[in-house]
């Protein structure tokens, strides 16, 4: 944990989609560790390092809003494609956007702010020139200057995230988390997708203690795939 | 296929557009009422509504120019385009089963997506998921647009209208040939949207879509003119009022986006006096009904090094 970082992120809206309710998207109550990792990677990432999220501080009360949009459900059947291929013609293979129109609601979080506490580990792909100090310096320099590889987002791309580095030793920003709520059980929540194990989703039992989700402590209780 | 090379500078933009006596974006959940943030009563326009208009403008303005096809166009046949990509890059593949997965060799899949990016302007700009049956890979585009919020609360009105004709014979008998309908309008609303152009997603060796300087110019042209070609009975009078672009010197950027956005401020003005939005002094002012009731300022004092402001 010598090279930990703390990043404050906030935005008007967010959607950390629950995998079990992804057709009509419903967001988790708080940011998932995988979304937090994605934000860190948007600022700085190399194959040599792997971000590990330690804690997520929830700075504002959890509130939802519903939003319905026209979307496309275009997904062609392979059988149809095969038939068209054998016929040597693309007739009837296509999808007309208006005909595959889907209206989907999304249950979004509104007015969110978090502090992500994380560190990184070196991976097997790290070369001799990849020192932890170098990557730590690169991340903090970029985050402090507002630089990013691509704009980080709060779950989906239309909800862009603003971010600010919390320098070492600086206090955490003021939290509006309701003082009377000490603990909240968030149930089983996606921790991350294990790309090494054929994209297995791993879930953990998420708990908020005084508005803080200690990911490592929750993980210690075990995960399920 | 753009002549210029891929974009290497990060950009952010603030887009102001307004609506008079129209519905800028209907809410399918609320009987096509204009979208509203229920907590603040401010109007909303979804990101995809804005992107649809950009696509329509580009299709209209550059429809005949090679490399400016629009993938998500009205009546488009998505898998037809995927198949064209396959045939252009890998003519030897003819079985549907082989097309369902990305080719194992990275070079081949990259050639596929590159072909799609080179031909379709909107894939180059916004990206696309091309995993629909016939798989042509996924692309993340450099251009990212957020929801637009109205700068002040808006008040949607329901206008009842009559039609002196009936659709069915039964209606004609029951209602004497007249039917009634409803229109939802916002008398006036000024909306503000934020956008990002992530240069590395345009110019990166493997992740870049090849979105060029010329494409960026076309994007800004589209943002300025998109409402001019989107007239309809529902929309009323919509117009782009201001586009403020922040150009960074580097690909990764030279300043925090939120600090740049904070430099663009909206004001209420009335009879020669100007107040911040929501100021107590404006409490007994009449509601805004035209763009002249607002003022937009861009603070250029002490701009961070490497930031250029372009107003258009």
From TrEMBL, chain A:
Gene3D superfamilies: 3.30.70.2660
Keywords, ordered alphabetically: Antiviral defense, Endonuclease, Hydrolase, Nuclease, RNA-binding
EC number of this enzyme: 3.1.-.-
A Pfam short name: Cas_Cas5d
Highest rank taxon of the organism: Bacteria
InterPro entries tied to this protein: CRISPR-assoc_prot_Cas5 (IPR021124), CRISPR-assoc_prot_Cas5_N (IPR013422), CRISPR-assoc_prot_Cas5d (IPR010155)
Role of this protein: CRISPR (clustered regularly interspaced short palindromic repeat) is an adaptive immune system that provides protection against mobile genetic elements (viruses, transposable elements and conjugative plasmids). CRISPR clusters contain spacers, sequences complementary to antecedent mobile elements, and target invading nucleic acids. CRISPR clusters are transcribed and processed into CRISPR RNA (crRNA).
Family affiliation: Belongs to the CRISPR-associated protein Cas5 family. Subtype I-C/Dvulg subfamily.
Record's protein name: pre-crRNA processing endonuclease
Taxonomic path: Bacteria, Pseudomonadati, Pseudomonadota, Alphaproteobacteria, Acetobacterales
Gene: cas5c
Automatic annotation (TrEMBL), chain B:
Lineage top rank: taxon: Bacteria
InterPro entries: Cas7_Csh2/Csh2, CRISPR-assoc_prot_Cas7/Csd2
Pfam families hit by this protein: Cas_Cas7
The name this protein goes by in its record: Type I-C CRISPR-associated protein Cas7/Csd2
Species annotation: Roseococcus pinisoli
């Amino acid at each position: 944990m010598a090279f930990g970082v703390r990043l404050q992120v906030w935005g008007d809206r967010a959607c950390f989609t629950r995998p079990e309710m992804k057709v009509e998207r419903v967001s988790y109550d708080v940011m998932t560790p995988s979304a937090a990792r994605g934000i860190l990677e948007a600022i700085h990432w190399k194959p040599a390092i792997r971000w590990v999220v330690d804690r997520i501080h929830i700075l504002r009360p959890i509130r939802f809003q519903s939003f319905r949009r026209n979307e496309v459900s275009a997904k062609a059947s392979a059988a149809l494609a095969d038939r068209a291929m054998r016929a040597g013609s693309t007739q009837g293979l296509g999808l007309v956007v208006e005909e595959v129109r889907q209206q989907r609601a999304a249950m979004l979080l509104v007015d969110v702010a978090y502090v992500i506490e994380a560190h990184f580990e070196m991976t097997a792909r790290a070369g001799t020139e990849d020192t932890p100090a170098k990557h730590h310096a690169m991340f903090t320099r970029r985050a402090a200057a507002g630089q990013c590889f691509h704009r980080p987002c709060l779950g989906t791309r239309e909800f862009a995230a603003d971010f600010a580095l919390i320098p070492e030793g600086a206090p955490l920003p003021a939290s509006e988390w309701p003082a009377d709520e000490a603990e909240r059980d968030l149930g089983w929540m996606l921790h991350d997708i294990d790309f090494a194990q054929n994209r297995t989703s791993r879930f953990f039992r998420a708990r908020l203690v005084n508005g803080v989700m200690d990911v490592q402590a929750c993980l210690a209780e075990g995960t399920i795939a | 296929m753009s002549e210029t090379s891929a974009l290497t500078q990060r950009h952010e933009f603030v887009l102001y557009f307004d609506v008079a006596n129209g519905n800028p974006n209907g809410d399918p959940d609320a009987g096509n009422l204009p979208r509203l943030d229920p907590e603040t009563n401010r109007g909303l326009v979804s990101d995809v509504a804005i992107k649809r208009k950009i696509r329509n403008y580009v299709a209209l303005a550059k429809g005949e120019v090679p490399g400016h096809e629009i993938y998500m166009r009205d009546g488009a046949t998505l898998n037809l385009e995927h198949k064209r990509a396959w045939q252009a890059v890998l003519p030897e593949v003819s079985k549907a089963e082989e097309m369902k997965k990305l080719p194992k060799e990275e070079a081949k899949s990259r050639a596929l997506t590159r072909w799609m990016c080179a031909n379709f302007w909107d894939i180059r700009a916004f990206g696309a998921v091309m995993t629909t049956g016939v798989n042509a890979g996924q692309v993340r585009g450099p251009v990212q647009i957020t929801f637009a919020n109205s700068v002040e609360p808006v008040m949607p009105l329901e206008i009842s209208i009559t039609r002196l004709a009936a659709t069915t014979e039964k209606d004609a008998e029951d209602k004497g040939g007249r039917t009634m309908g409803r229109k939802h309008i916002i008398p006036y609303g000024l909306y503000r949207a934020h956008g990002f152009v992530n240069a590395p997603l345009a110019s990166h060796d493997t992740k870049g879509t090849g979105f060029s300087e010329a494409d960026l110019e076309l994007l800004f042209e589209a943002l300025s003119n998109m409402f001019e070609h989107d007239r309809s009975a529902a929309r009323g009078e919509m117009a782009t009022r201001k586009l403020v672009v922040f150009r960074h010197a580097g690909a990764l950027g030279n300043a925090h986006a939120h600090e740049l956005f904070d430099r663009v401020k909206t004001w209420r003005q009335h009879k020669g006096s100007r107040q911040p939005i929501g100021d107590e002094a404006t409490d007994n002012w009449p509601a805004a009904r035209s763009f002249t009731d607002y003022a937009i300022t861009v603070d250029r004092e002490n701009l961070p090094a490497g930031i250029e402001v372009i107003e258009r």
